[in-house]
Specification:
301 residues; two-stranded antiparallel sheet; eight-stranded mixed β-sheet; 12 helices; Arc Repressor Mutant, subunit A
Length: 301
């Protein structure tokens, strides 16, 4: 039993599919199946119940899944600690980002980052993307981690700023798992067949795109509830009041555990590229370099 096998096994359980796990790990389906079979042969037990569309853990698989999670977490933390402590950086770093990105993606790695870099101080500020980019332009922030500025907020002067990719994301239509919504619909026009809750301001580029698609299909989107807070929209969806679009990073855990269901739409998708913007002459560039390395490690990149 090795780390690669455990990572593959964990990915299969997370995705509930050999095919989806293969795509996530950039492997062929046969390679994933072979690793799982080798793991089962080494342990002498069946780990997965293989269904037509999904796989599920056996009782032995449940036990291994718990240990695999702990082992992979410790390995991940060790990698992150070694990468951050070796840089010996110090000084302040002012970061601006959307609240959902801060809560779900950035905050989880702060503890270890600051522990191993005791002379670093971080100030995290939340706001909408356009405001954060203005603050960056005015020198009130060192870094803005936001969705692609050109697509979502009308751009930023490339002559004054460096850009680094953080993670690729996408918008998902999600619903309460017990509310009876289908797993797939044929057109975005079908979205308005049920109550819709709407995320405003956070991703204006997506709002324009989705509303344009509604109009193209001859329908008008009327939401029963709107908020600029991702967490609030997520809780409303979880309550079964309506379904709505949310960034995948904010609901992936709920979809994986069955609290929410992702509803796929035929010929409709909206990828999101989260990026880091910072001035070319940033004084705390070394801190940022280590911070981004820590963040990428924490995100599995």
């Amino acid at each position: 039993m090795n780390l690669t096998q455990l990572q593959t096994f964990s990915a299969v359980l997370q995705e509930k599919s050999m095919t989806a796990a293969a795509q996530k790990l950039f492997l062929t389906q046969s390679a994933v199946s072979q690793q799982i079979r080798q793991l089962e042969d080494e342990l002498g037990v069946e780990l997965l119940i293989r269904g037509v569309r999904q796989v599920a853990p056996t009782p032995s698989g449940h036990v291994l899944a718990d240990y695999a999670k702990k082992i992979l977490y410790l390995v991940h933390q060790a990698e992150l600690a070694v990468q951050t402590v070796s840089a010996e950086v110090k000084g302040p770093l002012r970061i601006g980002t959307l609240s959902s990105i801060g809560l779900q993606l950035i905050s989880p790695m702060f503890g270890l980052f600051l522990k191993n870099n005791s002379e670093v101080s971080v100030k995290l500020r939340y706001g909408d993307g356009a405001t954060l980019l203005n603050l960056l332009n005015e020198g009130e922030l060192d870094v803005a981690i936001v969705p692609d500025a050109g697509r979502e907020f009308g751009g930023i002067s490339s002559s004054n700023y460096e850009t680094k990719p953080v993670i690729d994301d996408e918008m998902w239509l999600v619903s309460n798992f017990a509310s009876g919504q289908p797993e797939r619909i044929e057109s975005i026009a079908d979205v308005v067949s049920r109550p819709v809750v709407w995320l405003t301001e956070e991703y204006p580029g997506f709002e324009h795109y989705a509303l344009r698609e509604f109009k193209k299909h001859g329908v008008i989107m009327r939401s029963i509830f709107e908020s600029s807070n991702v967490g609030t929209i997520k809780r409303v969806v979880e309550s079964g009041t309506g379904w709505g679009f949310l960034p995948a990073h904010s609901v992936r855990k709920q979809v994986r555990t069955g609290r929410l269901k992702r509803v796929e739409i035929h010929n409709f998708s909206y990828p999101i590229s989260l990026k880091c913007y910072y001035p070319k002459n940033l004084k705390s560039a070394k801190i940022l370099e280590v911070f981004l390395k820590s963040l990428q490690t924490n995100l599995g990149g």
